[in-house]
From TrEMBL:
Residues 323-401 form the Reductase C-terminal domain. It comes from the Bacteria. InterPro entries: FAD-oxidoreductase/Apoptosis (IPR050446), FAD/NAD-bd_sf (IPR036188), FAD/NAD-binding_dom (IPR023753), FAD/NAD-linked_Rdtase_dimer_sf (IPR016156), Reductase_C (IPR028202). Its cofactor is FAD. This is Ferredoxin reductase. The lineage of its organism: Bacteria, Bacillati, Actinomycetota, Actinomycetes, Mycobacteriales. It comes from Rhodococcus wratislaviensis (Tsukamurella wratislaviensis). Keywords: FAD, Flavoprotein, Oxidoreductase.
Amino acid sequence: MDTIVVAGASAAGLSAARQLRKSGFAGSIQLVDEEPHGPYRRPEVSKGLLNGQVDTNSIAVRWPDELGLEQVFGTRLTALDLQSRELHITSDSGAAVLGFDGLVIATGARARQTPFDTELRGVYTLRTLSDAMAMREDLDHAASVAIVGGGFIGLEVAAVARAMGKSVTVLETSDRPLGRVLGPVFADHIAGIHRERGVELLCEVAVTGLLAGPGNAVAGVALTDGTAVEADVVLVAVGSAPAVDWLASSGLDLTDGVLCDATLAVEGAQDVVAAGDIASWWNPLYGRRMRVEHWTNATEQGAYAARRLLGLHDMNGFVSAPYFWSDQHGMRLQSIGTTIGHDRADIVECAGERLVVAYSREGRLTCVAGINSGTAVQSYRKMVLEGETRDAMRNISDATADIAR
């Protein structure tokens, strides 16, 4: 290969570019991304950027000159032609074509857009640095914030806004925030932490629309039961979707991201790999297809995908017990493995706001999650990777109960 294009300056794309050089690739690497300001630490979007604790300079990812990357930023990907091995792009300078011998698809995911009136000022989705900087100014002057969606982004922003002294209401359609991901025991624990710090959590509610105030500014959120929640700022945090629009004419399977085999090679393409939020791959550890939207997974997948492109990969495939963290109210929530499909959840530790829960399926450990638990979660990494039996875990409380999926 003479030319490799990395589509997306995400955590996965950056990791792939680094690994290509580390593995000895001496050809041209073109790093293409839609955002104009270059790579940055994306987890700060819902944390330090909103309250001003960090700025754009401090979260920028610096690139050593010796990597020799051609950075093509502020450029939108429009199509992929696998037969001619070309990427179609467009920018302020017009349309262009990039040829490639190898391709890393790492365009990540986009926030699901608000289904409500987008003409009102003070209504946001949150995924990029630009989103955070725009919301930050309004958040500084707001007295009240309504967050539609009680997922990780919604809860992180709720914690940030509450620490800033704002009145915060989280609106969640299910019976508890994060219940689908972490199960009822852990989800109720998280909900209690937020409520104790003054966040109002309204569950099993649905939004019908937004209320307009003077000057076309948002004034609140209308609910299906006829009530309303006042708000100067509204964040719509209703999930994300893989950024695959530019691949629509490629012929690739885009059912849930980009379909890959266990080695992250894209099905139906030659010398094309995918990594990060966009990659749907067969995880040998769990014997199932997965798509994971977490920073650590993206970084590890990017490095593996680069080695796969060069034929230097582990032939067993990308085996992963995904790790993620979420900072809320000065505490870190951590998880290693996957809770999907678990048939039992056991409390390992519970003391005050500290909680560690082990998830298993058919007696095999699949995940351990904890909050305010220090290094406890990481200590179980080997057991999760090896699929130990639940009974092999030490210090599991005898007072446990089966918890339905």
